[in-house]
Design goal:
Length: 408
Amino acid sequence: MTNIKKHSTGSKEVLVEVDRLSKKFCVDLKTSLWYGLKDLYTNVLGNHQDRVLRPKEFWAVKDISFTLRRGECLGLIGHNGAGKSTLLKILNGLIKPDAGKVHIRGRVGALIELGAGFNPILSGRENIYNNGAVLGFSKAEIDAKLEAIIDFAEIREFIDMPVQHYSSGMKVRLGFAVAAQMEPDVLIVDEVLAVGDLGFILKCFKTIDTILPHTAVVFVSHNMPMVSRICNQAVLLEKGKAEFQGNNVSKAIDLYYSKFDASEKAIVFDSGLITLDSVSIITDKYSKGIPVLSWKDDLILCLKLTNLKLEKVPYISVYIYDKEQRSAGVLFYEFTNKSIAKGGVNISLIHKNIQFSKGIYNMTIIIYEEFEYKPIYRVNSIQSFQIEHNVESWTPLLLDSNIFYENN
């Protein structure tokens, strides 16, 4: 990996070039050591087996290529074990690829693992100077930025304490403060931001917004709203390979969500007063057994209940969650407490012109004896449904609107 110091603020030059990058690992330690010894010899003569798997080897990263310019942010997404961390470590120079090339121009700031790059026995202040020196800054340059780093990290009273006594949140604060305030040409951010509190995360994103025009950012997260918030291109990794790559970040996120199934139905509360026997959605279209509605269709939900002891019709809330289990909305139905007979009861609930964005959703139903009070029955993830639309969007709502214009 070449690392050339260059900083041209505001220009759009290429800062990261990755060409057919590949890295393989061995599942067996003894075999891995033996392969390592053989590779020391073959590398001297020129390794012609760099793209060939040997017994017990697998590709952690395979043929990954992309170009990242100043002002661009690449989102790396995929489930655990997809190869994201391996790729980041190659980009940061921590491990060498077996094949392919990486060219990074300029200073690199990295937040790959919690506390990575910190010496635990040194204080926070001393680690700031160490990290700054690794990035290529002089002592005078670090002196000029020291107070801004301490203020951003919000740990001034602990700055002279050994880092080994820091909490995980304090390490994230200090690590991001150093990486961001040093204004690197390339910033690599792994899932570490998930450790911080909400206020600090918002502060980090505001900082990324500020430095992004002058920086190339590689961002890894399982939080898709975060990815959509800052990334203008994405790579979806699956078993080390790029399953999707492009500027359509919403499509990449939609493919990511499609790999996860909704949680199974679970009754979490049953008072014995009423039971919910079945839930169905009225539609004539299904996909893999899931009811499919088009955007702005009417959502018609049919419930079959068995009333055991209730004297009046209960209140019903339908909570709807998206693929990431974010709350997308709640439907509340009030029946003015009319009397209810014992035995089987059929109830139809209608929500007109549903405006959820494309994707799969699931429902949790809570039945109350009184208005949002005295819950008597709850079942999670009892029914899934899919919304179809030609627009890719990570947001739960895709709201209809009208546009009016006139010429001046």
